[in-house]
Amino acid sequence: MTKANSAIEVSGLHKSFGKTHALDGLDLVVETGEVHGFLGPNGAGKSTTVRVLLGLLRADSGAAQVLGRDPWTDAVELHRHLAYVPGDVELWPTLTGGEAIDLLARLHDGGRAQRVRQGGGGRRAGGINKQRRAELIERFDLDPTKKGRAYSKGNRQKVAIVAALASDAELLLLDEPTAGLDPLMEVVFQDVIVEAKAAGKTVLLSSHILAQVEKLADRVSIIRLGRIVQSGTLSEMRHLTRTTIEAETERPAAGLDALPGIHDLQTLDADAGRVRFAVDGGHVDRAVRKLTEFGIRSLISHPPTLEELMLRHYGDELAANGHSGNGNGAV
Amino acid sequence: MTTATVKKAPARTAPVTGGNGLAGTRTLIRFNLRRDRVRLPVWTLALFLGTIATANNYKELYADPEDRAGVAKTMDGPAGLAMSGPSRYLTDYNFGSMLGHQMLGFMAVLVGLMSVLVITRHTRAEEETNRAELVRSTVVGRHSHLAAALSVAVIANLVLALLLAVGLAGAGIDGIDGTGSLLYGLGHAAVGIVFATVAAITVQMTAHTRGASGMALAVIGVAYVLRAAGDTGSNGALSWLSPIGWVQRTYVYVDNRWWPLLLCLALAVACAAAGFVLSTRRDVGAGLRAGKLGSPVASDALGTPLGFALRLHRGTLIAFAAGLFLMGAMYGSILGDADDMLKDIDQIQEALDRIGGASIAESFASMVMVVITVVAAVYVVMAALRPRSEETAGRAEPLLATGLSRARWVGGHLAVAMGGGTVVLLAAGLGFGISGAASTGDAGLFPKLVGAALAYAPALWVTVGVAVVLFGWFPQASAFAWIVPVYAFLVGYLGQILQFPDWMNNLSPFGHVPQLPAADMSWTPMLLLTLVAAGLVRLGVAGFRRRDLETK
């Protein structure tokens, strides 16, 4: 197929449900071959975005291209090249997990490939790589003989994850895929995504598990109120944001507050000369040189965690809701 | 009510109750009534007002005694009796006995439906959604859910009985007196409570609300068919197997017999006790039948939209086909009597001659077809609305994110709905044809009856079309597709009794089908219905393709 430079290109996307503006001018670019973290709390518009990218919802305005296709008009053809894991998988009560996996895999090819049976050299049967399917079922510790209604939430997620990863899709749209998975399975999931990336697949990983995104994502987009508020690699984003520094000096450090880019200066222990402050990415050097003037005994610097990056965009909301920051937050 | 009779079950496990198995029942009853504060008043008022309106309607339609005598004569045949009640009522056909004869059996089905839904909603549906688990973790006895649900059903039925007794007695209609009205009301309550306790058993059997409701509704259906066969046939023994038959044999407003209500009470006590005993033999959330494991891989057929849809619809389709085959066979078995019973009645013979050379058996068969097609239409609407329930349950989303187009996905379901509807009709026709041909000794009747059933297929397809248009363009209003079978039932069934004008009949797709085998075949309406169905389906699918998928 023809391939655009970026796997996903979205600009100025708007989508309303009645009076609610779910998407309010969303721009998003996901490069081919990257794992792209899509961050935001519940209700920010993550799932709506993914569903527009799948052609399940029709955007009110704006442009979206997925693998060089229009997701609304070209949905079916597009779906042959991608796989989707929803955050809340519902299965058919009377079908077993194994049947659901096969069904999704066969329909992935529009039911066409189902006559391609095992043997004759082909390992694929019905759009699914049987070996891969068996391996994934094993790794995720899934019982494929249970009926859909007998599965717990986490096991339903596993069914969808196995179906998506056993396919030969080049793009994976994962909408909070590990909700309900236990920590052991979370590790398996992360391994599998790393492998998928190594195999050249593109992944859009919508999540609010920051540790997961921090570990897997090459680039991150943060969505708020239906709009991307920040997008870039983690190191880019860190550079743009504040580093927290905690220092102990021989003499009490004075004059820090006069420096540019210093925020939230706190004196933790005046006698011991312990201070803590946040400093903007571009001013770390000046601040540290200032500290050396007072004789540094110890110096701890935290790069901003993803949580702090998020809080930077959502902190006002928390404050408005009566939550205080966690003290060393970069907000 | 019946809860007091419950003994501790000889359960496998030792009873865990530290004492009161009914703790918290009163709170649960209040809670259930609160949840049903709209539902139950609507049910009871609709049933009550429908009865009052019918009684008033009689007063206008059949003002003269001659009119009533005329109705009594038309009713006194297999077709009339199958649709109403035992012929004892016809001896003195005043407004009261008309009500008891024509409405009681029909209302019993509706009251039963209300009662069954109350029970499944407050017991099995609670367990299936895991809400019962949460409630049971508090100070609530193991029998409290069932006891509370039964209490609510009893309350609803008694309220309805009271409304009917007071409302009818006060309506000032000749022949409808106070004592009769009280019996009439309590007859409704008795049969409603019986079916509520039947549901108390079925909810123990399966872990699924739909299955439990379906089983209980099947019992209502069998009870109705038994009484229909018993009232029509030469001996009434079959009617005595049916609770609906029992309340009809109170001969309300004619003899005012009270003792058949005791039969209902005894059966209700027995069923409720069985329900409580069975409930102790299972775990919360589980059914008596354990869940089975299935195949770890999908069969080849499952990979196509049609094969997949067929798999989802399989159970319902088989159940309806089997049910309608039996229903057809039952009506067929009394077809032989129809000729004998009516041969000597001149008026009916004359009336039938006017229809056009049809035999009595054939005209009766045409009436039966109406009932059969309404049941088939219920199946068809259920099947055609399946895509909607798949969509709202969030199960359409992962499928439509694959290489499956919306049209093919919905097309699979529609093919099953239309094809399945035809299969269901065929099953009914076969049952009716085989046993009808056997009971009349006329083998030539078999192909006629099968053909008569199949003639309704295009009208079923139109019903599917209506459901698809709603699904495609007004998904929130999909449930309005139920209007089609309900309306067809009203005009096809009550219309015969209440003499609706022609245009009302023509509004229903079923009104355009030639009434085989009594009438002649005419292909034009069949062709037109097929074209209308095709147009509606295209329109509906087009609507679905351009709207947002509803997601959770």
Plain-language structure description:
The complex is a heterodimer of chains A (331) and B (552). With 331 residues, chain A is an alpha/beta fold. Chain A is 31% helix and 29% strand. The longest helix of chain A has 16 residues, at 183-198. Chain A is elongated. The radius of gyration of chain B is 24 Å and the shape is globular. In chain B, α9 (178-205) packs parallel to α12, α16 runs parallel beside α21 (457-473) and α19 runs antiparallel to α20 (445-454). Chains A and B meet through α2, β5 and α3 of A and α13 and α18 of B. Chain A: Belongs to the ABC transporter superfamily. Chain A: It comes from Streptomyces resistomycificus. Chain A: It is a peripheral membrane protein. Chain A: GO terms for molecular function: ATP binding; ATP hydrolysis activity.
| Assembly type | heterodimer
First and last CA, distance of chain B: 41 Å
Provide the helix percentage of chain A: 25-40%
Low-confidence stretches of chain A: 113-126, 324-331
Quantity of strands of chain B, as a count: 0
What are the secondary-structure elements of chain A, in order, as H or E?
EEEHEHEHEEHHEHEHEEHEEEHEH
Radius of gyration of chain B: 24 Å
Q: What is the helix tally of chain B?
A: 24
Name its key features.
heterodimer, A: 331 residues, alpha/beta, Rossmann fold, Alpha-Beta Plaits, six-stranded mixed sheet, four-stranded antiparallel sheet, 10 helices, 15 strands, disordered C terminus, B: 552 residues, mainly alpha, 2 domains, 70% helix, 0% strand, disordered N terminus
List the helices and strands and how they pair.
The complex is a heterodimer of chains A (331) and B (552).
Chain A: E1 6-17, E2 20-31, E3 35-39, H1 46-53, E4 61-66, H2 75-79, E5 82-85, H3 97-108, E6 124-125, E7 128-129, H4 130-139, H5 153-166, E8 171-175, H6 183-198, E9 202-207, H7 210-216, E10 219-224, E11 227-233, H8 234-240, E12 243-249, E13 262-269, E14 274-279, H9 284-292, E15 296-302, H10 306-320
Parallel strand pairs in A: 3-9, 3-10, 5-8, 8-9
Antiparallel strand pairs in A: 1-2, 1-4, 6-7, 10-11, 12-14, 12-15, 13-14
Helix pairs in contact in A: 3-5, 4-5
Chain B: H1 25-35, H2 39-61, H3 65-75, H4 78-83, H5 95-122, H6 124-128, H7 131-136, H8 144-169, H9 178-205, H10 209-232, H11 243-248, H12 260-279, H13 305-333, H14 335-342, H15 346-356, H16 360-384, H17 386-392, H18 396-400, H19 406-440, H20 445-454, H21 457-473, H22 483-498, H23 502-506, H24 523-546
Helix pairs in contact in B: 1-8, 2-5, 2-8, 5-8, 5-9, 5-10, 8-9, 9-10, 9-12, 10-13, 13-16, 13-19, 14-16, 14-19, 16-19, 16-21, 16-22, 19-20, 19-21, 19-24, 21-24
